[in-house]
Each structure stands twice: as C-alpha cells, then as structure tokens.
Amino acid sequence: MCSPYSGKELNVMDVSIHKCSSCGRFQSPPAYFCISCKSDKLEWIEIPGRGTLYTYSTVYVPLSSHEDQAPYTVAIVEFQEDLRLTGRLVNSNSENLEIGAQVEVVDVRDGVYFFDICK
Amino acid sequence: MKNVSVVGIGKTKYGVLQEKTFLDISVEAGKKAMEDAGIGPEDIEALYLGNYGGSDFINQNHLAPYVGSALGLGVHVACTHIENACASGGSAVREGILAINSGIARIVLVIGVEKMNTVTTPMVTEFLAKAGDWENEVRVGYTFPCAFAMMARRHMHQYGTTRKHLAAVAVKNHKNGLNNPTAHMHKSITIDQVLEDDRIVADPLRLYDCSLITDGASAVVLSEESMARSFSDKPVDIIGFGQAMDHFVLYQKDDLTKFNATVEAAEMAFTMAGVKPSDIDVAEVHDCFTIAEILAIEDLGFVPKGQGGPATADGMTSHGGKFVVNPSGGLKAKGHPVGATGVDQIAEIALQLRGEADARQVKNAEIGLTHNLGGSGATCVVHILARN
Fold first, then answer.
1. Which of A117, B6, B220, B300 is most buried per CB count within 10 Å?
2. In whole angstroms, how far apart are CA B310 and each of A49, B11, B29, B315, B332?
3. Please, which pLDDT band fits residue A12 given cuts at 50, 70 and 90?
4. Domain range summary for chain B, segments of one domain joined by +
5. Active-site residue, B86 included
C-alpha cells in the first residue's frame, strides 16, 4: 500500500495537524494553547502522512474492549522533529520492525491512525 | 509554616484479598496507624484518602467520608478523596502535609487503598488505561504495559539497555520481597526465568517485567513536628516534597526515556530538604514495570541518564549497595494496589528510618526518599524523610 519512495509523492495520504499560528510549532494532540509559546491562535494544516518509526510495541494482553484484535501493534511515528503521531501498525509485529523504518499513514478510522511500513 | 512528622504507620497484608471488603482493609490500615500513634478516631482532624478506581472496581464513589464514617471520625473532620492515577497515594500524603503546614489541622490520617481483584485482568487493564488519554491513546489500543514497553524500547535504542538489565530489577525486587511479610508475592526468581518466560504482555515486556494486580491498604498518621514526640518515640520528619506535571500524552513528551515530572518533583524536594541525591540511604521508587525503576533512578539523579540498567545489574541498588532501592520488594513483588502505593512508600521509609524494618532494614538509614508516578508520567510526587 505504500508509495515507492522515489522523490515523487504518490498516493501519500495527507493528515490534518494542528499548528500554532504565532510560532509555527506543530501540536499533537491538538492543543488549546501552543505547547511552546502558549499562544491560543492555532490553525489546521494538511501534511503528507509519512514519517519514521520512533518506537512500538506488540500488545498481547489487551484492553477488554480490544480483546478481539489482539495481538496488535501500537506505534509512535515521528513526522518531523516536533511532531509525532500514534496509531496502529498494520501487517507488522515486533519481530520484523526496526526503529527508524519509513512509515506511511494508510488509513484513519474513528480517529485512529493506521500506519504501514514502506517496503 | 508548621513542619510535619510521620507518627503512626499501619498496613494490611497485600495480595488477593477476596474475603475482605474495601472498607475492611481501609479501616484495618487506618486503625493500625492510629494505634501505632497511640491515638483514636476522636483525635483525627482531617482524612485524606488516596484511591484510583473505586467507582470501577467496587462501584462506589464519595470514598473519603465512606471510609471516615466507618472509622468513626468526628463530624468536624474534613474527609477528602485524592485521585491522581498511580500517584493518588503520594498526592494524598502531600495534601495531608499541606493541611498541617497551613495550620488548618494538627493531626491528619492519610489512607491509601485499592481493591482490584474484583474483575478480570482485561477489565483491570481497561480500568487502569483510563489514566491515559482515551481519545488519543486508549482507543488506539494503548495499555499501560504497552506505554512502558515503548519507553523501554527507546531506552534500549538510545542507551543500549537490554532485557537482562530489566530482568535485574525484577530479580532484585523479588528477592527483597521475601523479607517483607506484607508483600503480595514471596517468590525468588532468576534472570533466566525473567528472560525466558513466554508470557509476553506488551513486547519487550513480559510477565516478570510487570507489577502485580493487588488488593491492599496502607496508612500513616501525620502530625505537627512540635508535638510528634507525644505520639511516637521515633518520629520521622518529612523534610522535603515536590509534585510536578508533564504532558498528559506519552508521545508528546520530548524524550520518552525521561520523566520530566520526576526530574522537576525531585528538584523541588531536594531543594526544600537541603540534601542531594548522594545523601539518600534508601529509596522506595515507582517500579510499576522494570523499566520504570531504571528511569526513576536516573531521573532522581542517583545515576547518570542511560546508566540505570548497568547500575542495577552491578548491584548498586541492592542491599549492601551504594543506595538501596525498593527494599520492600517494590511494586514488583510487594504489589501495586494503585491508590495505596504512594502511602505505603512513606510507611516503608518511615519504618526504615525508625530502624524497625526487620529483615529488610538498611543499616543506619538516616535519610530516605519516595517516588510515586501517575499515568505515563503526567504526575510525579517525591518526598524526602529523615530521622527526627
């Protein structure tokens, strides 16, 4: 599902991110006050949903509400230095993952990001 | 400002206490603490109750007067419930101190309590996850083991920490737990047992990396320092404390290998106490997972960042080491009745400084520290205690 990483952006899903209109700092999760300059002027912008794997864990003992999905893999993805998002990794578990791998957003369902490793 | 001493200690057995109710254990711990101070319910001027999940685990809210009433406290006694996730107990102690500092009360009872073994493990996991951010983390599937697993993986990546380092925390704390009669688990384990156990909770954390689902209660009586000797031959003074906050959401933290709230709370406590990390003889720290103890001893300033794993494996934090961490067995072996933990840490350090910790006694302990963490580090409470 990943686009080939050839410099040309193909099928990369955009994601909406909250950004401070005063100092430009990204806010994730969305904020009431900028976590950097404390301004309350914030806006939504779209950025390409591609980043690197920052950390991850495959969950074997789930929440009762997620029992039918376990084991599943949760990840934190770094999009740029001051922006990370969290979500679920599809087609992966801790066995075949590595910090720093290229990751793309492939879906957003009920407010949850789904990531896949770029192969 | 009035200084504060610990003059009474009481605790129940920790474990799966099916035959006892929430009130049974709350009252047992509170009564023992009052007896230890040589006082009765009529002497208590304020009650602070640390509890996390009463409304989930036992279908009960309005918990502080629920317990205060069962203890027979007077109608003039303000009873207040403190909920700060796993730091509920530490925050309750801090509120008790502030009540005495301000002069509004002279004798305060603080009880920490949790009754968790009322539901299945997935339900416990779900209830505990409510201390995280539901919209941004929990609905993704975060559990607390998962959050600490992701921190562990970053620590391994940035500092070369290994599963063997994590295992050293579990082995040490299980060994310490053997000396604690009220601990949930009395079971010696080996590094290989921790490494080879096939019950993965949230990779890389396995069963022995995790604390226990425990029922239990602990209590302390606090008084003005000037009157402490009328209650106890060996009062223990609270000489410094701090509570701090960090981003609520884990992935927003600038560095997943560091708890800013711990660093901040420790700095406040050390400054107030006028001591430094190297002055601490004994510490009870929040080892909800093995990685959490490694992060704690680094963030408290006992060892440089990244050295927590090797320091533990080298025995620096074991009995006879440079500074002893979790001689009680910690959350790992003593158990982690969430709201009770922060209060029990105070009780344990007070016992150490009185010289009454029996087989777990750290020789000549004069200054001790407690570290109680809430959620994935959004709250941290640190206390520093010393012999009167």
1. B6
2. 38, 33, 37, 9, 19
3. confident
4. 4-119+213-230
5. yes
Q: Specify the pairing of strand A102-109 against strand A50-59.
A: antiparallel
State the pLDDT confidence band at A92, using cuts at 50, 70 and 90. confident
Over residues B55-66, the pLDDT tens digits come to 999 999 999 999
Q: Is the pLDDT of residue B226 over 70?
A: yes
Nearest-CB residue to B145 (from A61, A72, A94): A61
Can you identify the CATH homologous superfamily of domain B4-119+213-230?
Thiolase/Chalcone synthase (3.40.47.10)
Tokens encoding A118: 């770029």
How are strands ordered across the β-sheet holding B367-374?
B78-82, B46-50, B107-114, B216-224, B4-11, B236-245, B379-387, B367-374, B282-284, B324-325
Pairwise CB contact (< 8 Å): B200 & A60:
yes
What's A14-117's CATH class?
mainly beta
Tell how far CA B186 is from the center of its chain. 19
Complex ipTM: 0.94
Residue B210 a catalytic site member: no
Separation CA B271–CA B241 (nearest Å): 9
pTM assigned to the model:
0.96
The whole-number pLDDT of residue A2 equals 55
In chain B, the residue whose alpha carbon lies closest to the alpha carbon of A28 is B252
B-facing residues of A in 80-99 (CB < 8 A) are 84-88, 93-94, 99
